[in-house]
Amino acid sequence: MTTQMIIRMNPELKEKLNRLAKTEGKTTSQMVRELIESYITEHDISSYVDSLWDRVGKKLKTRGVTPASIDKAVKDVRKKR
Fold first, then answer.
1. Distance between CA atoms of 31 and 24, rounded to whole angstroms?
2. Rounded CA gap, 48 and 6, in Å?
3. Residue 23 and residue 64: Cα distance in Å, rounded?
4. Residue 25: left (phi > 0), alpha (psi -120 to 50), or beta?
5. Taking the mean position of all CA atoms in its chain, how far away is CA 18?
6. Distances from the Cα of 29 to the Cαs of 2, 3, 40, 66, in angstroms?
7. Which end of the chain is more exposed for a tag (fewer CB within 10 A), N or C?
8. Whole-angstrom distance, CA of residue 29 vs CA of residue 18
């Protein structure tokens, strides 16, 4: 389900957005959604962390590291303290 949001902007900015959207074959709503999604992706630290964990996990798998070997390494480090 989607929800509606009302924003205020000066008329000149709205006209520029309308022209740009038309040039790209999109609606102004599509443009605004894409801009918001892009902003959130770039600025939301949880998305960055999730992406980082995915990359780390894939690298570990390609090197043959298993969850069991990670657990063992963590336990070994904790014992040394």
1. 9
2. 28
3. 49
4. left
5. 26
6. 12, 12, 16, 45
7. N
8. 10
Place of tokens 């969850």: 67
Polymer length of the chain: 81
Spatial separation of the C-alpha atoms in residues 74 and 10, rounded to whole Å = 56
Q: Where do we find the tokens 């894409």?
A: 34
Sequence letter at residue 49: V
Q: What is the DSSP letter of 64?
A: T
Q: Give me 2's structure tokens.
A: 């989607």
- 48-73 residue pLDDT tens: 888 898 999 899 999 998 889 888 88
Instruction: Give the whole-angstrom CA distance, residue 18 versus residue 28.
Output: 6
| Mean pLDDT, residues 32-41 taken together | 93
Residue 34 identity (one-letter amino acid): E
| Collapsed DSSP state (helix, strand, coil) of residue 30 | helix
